[in-house]
Amino acid sequence: MSKNLLEIRNVSKVYQRGLLSSKATVALKEYSLTLPEDNPSILTVAGESGSGKTTLAMLLLGFITPTTGEIIYRGKNIQSLEGKDKLAYRHEVQAVFQDPFAVFNPFYTVDHLLTVPIRQFKLAKSGRDARNKMDEALTAVGLRPEDVLGRFPHQLSGGQRQRINVARALLLKPRLLIADEPVSMVDASLRANILESLRNLHRDHGVTIIYITHDLTTAYHVADNIVVLYKGDVVESGDVESVIRNPQHNYTRLLVDSIPWPDLNKKWGEPLKPREIA
Amino acid sequence: MTIDTTPARAKKPGSANANVTEPVLRVEGLEVTYYTDLGRAKALDNVGFTLNSGEKLGMVGESGSGKSTMALAMMRMIKPPGRIEGGKVIVGGTDLMALDELGMRRARLNKIAYIPQGAMNSLNPVMRIGAQMSDAIRSHIKGEARSTVEDRIAKALRSVDLDPGVARMYPHELSGGMKQRVCIAIGILLQPNVIIADEPTSALDVVTQRQVMETINRVQSEINAAVILIGHDMGLMAQAVDKVAVMYAGRLVELATVREMFTDPKHPYSQALISSLPNLDNKGVFQGIPGLAPSLLRLPKGCAFHPRCPHGKGELQSNVRPEPVILPGGRMVTCHLYSEEGHVHEGAK
Hints:
The structure holds two protein chains of two kinds.
Chain A (H helix, E strand, L loop, with lengths): L3 E13 L7 E13 L5 E5 L6 H8 L7 E6 L2 E2 L5 H10 E4 L14 H10 L6 H14 L4 H4 L9 H15 L3 E5 L7 H18 L2 E6 L2 H7 L2 E6 L2 E7 H6 L4 H8 L21
Parallel strand pairs in A: 3-8, 3-9, 6-7, 7-8
Antiparallel strand pairs in A: 1-2, 1-4, 4-5, 9-10
Helix pairs in contact in A: 3-6, 4-6, 6-7
Chain B lengths: L5 H5 L14 E12 L2 E13 L4 E5 L6 H8 L7 E10 L2 E2 L5 H7 L4 E4 L13 H10 L7 H14 L16 H12 L6 E5 L7 H18 L2 E6 L2 H7 L2 E6 L2 E7 H6 L4 H8 L39 H5 L5 E2 L5 E2 L16
Parallel strand pairs in B: 3-8, 3-9, 6-7, 7-8
Antiparallel strand pairs in B: 1-2, 1-4, 4-5, 9-10, 10-12, 11-12
């Protein structure tokens, strides 16, 4: 029997509003998912703002704890990881976040983002070795090391910064990469390059990627499978080709219809009815 | 130099005999320079275009290509170390650049409104929406009765599909899409002739994005304004605008109707932008634009795009700066492939 890389069992996350208020927001509802270890894939989690996408990412990274259910990483519940196992988990599960501006500490040069994990996980034997590894990772995402190393975050463009994040993931050679809207704040012309780097990571290093996005166009291009969330619930899932070409659920259809295709013959249809007011 | 693309559109049947209306917006030779410690950066270089009432112009380009500078310059909101070095912005017959500071204050929101980038973060978090809106009205129209002001606010909110009750709320009580619509409502309070929306949807998901664009469409037809939509998403432009202007390193490199732009882009940069877009037919093909946008402090000699251009190897491209050329049909392109001297290269395309 093959082992599972990641298993999510009936996970819910409820945000309670205040002590006395009975109003609770269910961000994720009894969500289950299994990703096999021996067959790395790219899974897209799609949905609009507030559909629970980022909550899922935070849960998987262990930043918040599930209200009910459990997340099993390679046979162990991530909440009860300790010592060596915890370190291994932190090493093997990496993230690329949406905002390439917020993840950098403005007081350090961008090298910091790369040198800290090298030291932490003892990836290099010497300073020279560390430098070579950094150069290699940066070159792999299409950056020239001499252009970016030693610079401060504000001296780099958003696209460059986001690619440094991908380079960091590359450096650590994770088993699971959680990419939360990695290209939504990047220029359209740079999106292609970043997605390409992510896909190479998957192809060349067998990394399983959970690609979280609201943009079904890029999802279609990088992913194998897709899960569509709506208000914390899975409304549709399956392989990306059939879900996007032939959406079954009304909400998925709305998402697919709202893609701004760069094609004059594929215009948005009738204006939407005003949905939520308040 | 100003390129007038109106003739192509004015030849619509029925309007042929009508007076050719003066475009509501005319920008001529706008130039902005930032004086930084590292040298002069020319953020806008001789930009000009015209726009009619009811038309939507999409302005696309990479970050740093001068799109937002362009919007700020039109509002005369460039702050030091930046300076507007020349040019005219004529809205409904008035040259904004010739107004004094007080006159310009009156013109903002009244003649020309600006919906800033990340508009949702531009609302004051400790003021109710209604108070922020009445501030805007009162600084333009003095001594209006409170009920009249409230009516205006309610009307503006309704026209962007929001409940007038939103006026009593604080920004944190609204979702991103709703805040964006509040900003549009503020923009149209005084029914300006020109609305500039700087990346109005870039932080929103596709469904909300579509709703915001539909809101802009509707209010535009209500007040018959000219709209400039700034963004980097060509897909959104295909859905929303009438004309597309492509900017590169502070210059307008191509200006055409949306149909011409998507069926037959002329400038190699526009071609690259359009072919880098993902669509359903080329799954798994990523075609980025090679190279990086040049720094405005160190612009390449000759054509600024030549180091990244597939046709940029020639003497001409690396030494002579191309000038805007008007092609038959009224579209404009700034590229040696289409200039007099560059005709020899046309075969290469």
